């Protein structure tokens, strides 16, 4: 006789089962479709995706199961054939449970009307048997090799669905951890950065008349570095929000000239480092609807990129104009440009 208790209550198997977060979850179409397909292909009234817990079996799908079991979606192990699939780690083929030496006293026979049973183990990549995908008939049946092959293929599809759910859950958890990490590290960086920037400003103001030119240059360089790090933190937070689908944009009336002027003020210290000239051509109001903070962030990044890739003592041009109901803003520099084959990938 098969010892069912030890394999069913194995702590590692139960941990693997519970880690999947499938027990006591609502019915799902992906599993129900496979169970329905099993009933049609094998011409049986009942098909179950069964997960065997330590003291019960839970039906992730239960097509054709009579009441009250269909509503409960679980039974105690006293009504379980699937526990024997878990114990044997192999298919269980039963032509008539009423005369089967292992199953004839199982309460599933009188209470659920189980007579013929075909169960295929649900096995994880780590070798844990979660339960069984089974087909049930209410009369004796001689299962064929073709029946077993069909249900085995459908069982593989059930496991694929389970593994996809597990992979998606793992990705969601990794996303959550990444978001928490980025938010935490951004906070940890911004706090000392704000203090350092304030200290630099205080020294510059309080000692303005006593600073030598080289000391003033060092303070300016420190202030520019602090501002640059602040922009990097902003970019990191924006990317994190964008990836998480949590980036909220506001749409308000604005003049794009104000956005450009704000961005220019932020990058002018960088341009002076390489003696670069910034030429702005904004001859008329440039009305638009948008998020001025995010637009300024975009223009700052474009200008910073132009500064980085443009040779010293050359010009960077920012030009804006209205063309009908559209607004065009151009940032032009003398850098090497972007290879033609990579242009489409920039905004993906």
From TrEMBL:
Residues 184-348 form the Histidine kinase domain. Its EC number is 2.7.13.3. Keywords: Kinase, Transferase, Two-component regulatory system. It comes from the Bacteria. The keyword Transferase applies. PROSITE patterns: HIS_KIN. The keyword Mitochondrion does not apply. CDD domains: HATPase, HisKA. SMART domains: GAF (SM00065), HisKA (SM00388). One of its GO terms (molecular function) is phosphorelay sensor kinase activity. InterPro entries: GAF, GAF-like_dom_sf, HATPase_C_sf, HATPase_dom, His_kinase_dom, HisK_dim/P_dom, HisK_dim/P_sf, Sensor_HK_Regulatory. It catalyses: ATP + protein L-histidine = ADP + protein N-phospho-L-histidine. PANTHER family: HISTIDINE KINASE 1, TWO-COMPONENT HISTIDINE KINASE. This is histidine kinase. It comes from uncultured Thermomicrobiales bacterium. The lineage of its organism: Bacteria, Pseudomonadati, Thermomicrobiota, Thermomicrobia, Thermomicrobiales.
